[in-house]
Design brief:
The complex is a heterodimer of chains A (164) and B (213).
Chain A: H1 3-15, H2 17-27, H3 31-48, H4 58-73, H5 83-90, H6 100-114, H7 118-128, H8 133-140, H9 144-162
Chain B: H1 3-14, H2 23-30, H3 37-60, H4 63-70, H5 74-101, H6 108-147, H7 149-161, H8 164-197, H9 199-211
Classes of the chains: A mainly alpha (164), B mainly alpha (213).
């Protein structure tokens, strides 16, 4: 692929990389795995890029490829992971507004999401990203009604994990 | 407040606080090798095709097969050989067509479906080849019994001694052992793919299918 295309791709990705970081955030438990998945999504995006014609927004296109990579294509490497340590490093932000109780609760929430299965995580991700049920259903290839039902079940599941 | 909505607030507030990769780092990533399962399926499937192709060539040159050609029964062996290549060609075409259908931009369910279908073509291929080999082996055994002068002589000798039953038993036993070995190879490939490579994908696919009853 030519270098002009490569340049435009890298620029677009650099500007919109947050989206991929967010997917990695939900699907991985360590910094190494995060980087690994980020890299695989980048490769898959690059491979699909020649067919991206700008009909949809780059982000809409990228998050579909990203989610597909996380759920379907990516091969997890077996590593010893330390969820708690990773969650702490990611949350050492906005130090001045630190509310420890709130912080602790959020940490538990993220840990609860990590316990969900891959498909549930995809639904959670799109929910957090404010996607409507039509788009969630379309991305996963299920009906809208079932996407709604599933989302309600996930909410129930999370409550159960948090208050066993 | 719903736990998930609480998470959403934080997600929006802190969603932009990830360490950023530089353009140079992204460039470097583009040239790294993918370790996606699609690539692995392609590699392993090619190995499977090549494995059976090589095996058919090796077997063709074996002394047993030389003996078969000495029997002058090409009206049976030639169609068998042609069938072998037709099977290979047919499945390679199917595999390639399915492989081309895999698009990372499809919806998740369709993507998984296409990957599983691609792999299934190879599984069916192996199954077809094993069935073919089994039939081929049976045909060869029967041909030997019918035309091989050495074997006919041996059968007569055993018949005179009155233990021809043992001879047949040994013959069938060997055929079964050979079949068992081939089936073991098949099982190995099958486990390799479905056990290690596609376990997670299959689980996720079943989960999605369960949703759309």
């Amino acid at each position: 692929m030519d270098s002009v295309m490569e340049k435009s791709f890298v620029q677009l990705l650099q500007e919109n990389q947050n989206l991929i970081h967010k997917i990695c955030r939900l699907y991985t438990n360590s910094e190494d795995a995060h980087k690994d998945l980020f890299q695989e999504i980048t490769i898959q995006l690059w491979k699909a890029y020649p067919k991206f014609r700008g009909e949809s927004k780059f982000t809409t296109w990228a998050y579909r490829v990203g989610l597909n990579t996380a759920i379907t294509l990516y091969r997890k490497k077996s590593r010893t992971v330390n969820t708690i340590e990773f969650d702490n490093t990611l949350h050492k932000i906005n130090q001045e507004e630190y509310d420890y109780e709130e912080e602790e609760h959020l940490k538990l929430l993220y840990q609860a999401v990590h316990q969900l299965n891959d498909i549930d995580k995809a639904l959670v991700f799109m929910y957090l990203e404010d996607k409507d049920y039509g788009e969630i259903a379309e991305t996963l290839g299920i009906s809208e009604v079932n996407a709604r039902v599933k989302m309600n079940r996930i909410k129930g599941k999370l409550k159960k994990i948090l208050n066993p | 407040m719903e736990p998930l909505d609480k998470l959403k607030n934080d997600w929006k507030k802190n969603g932009g606080n990830y360490p950023k990769f530089s353009e140079q780092e992204i460039y470097a990533m583009l040239h790294k090798r993918s370790s996606s399962i699609v690539k692995w399926i392609l590699v392993i499937s090619m190995l499977e095709f090549v494995f059976w192709l090589v095996l058919s060539f090796v077997l063709r040159d074996s002394s047993q097969m030389q003996k078969v050609s000495n029997l002058h029964v090409s009206y049976i062996t030639l169609p068998l050989e042609i069938a072998n290549y037709v099977i290979i060609l047919f499945f390679v075409t199917i595999f390639y067509r399915n492989y081309k259908k895999i698009k990372v931009t499809d919806n998740a369910r369709k993507l998984m479906q296409n990957i599983l279908r691609t792999k299934k073509a190879v599984t069916h291929y192996i199954f077809a080849i094993i069935t073919y080999n089994f039939i081929g082996m049976m045909v060869v055994f029967i041909l030997f019994f019918m035309y091989d002068p050495e074997l006919i002589k041996m059968v007569h000798e055993f018949e005179e001694k009155g233990n021809v039953g043992w001879f047949y038993l040994l013959y069938i036993g060997l055929a079964l052992i050979a079949t068992a070995i081939i089936l073991l190879v098949y099982w190995f490939f099958y486990r390799l793919i479905y056990g290690l490579l596609l376990k997670r994908l299959k689980r996720n696919y079943d989960e999605l299918k369960k949703l759309d009853f």
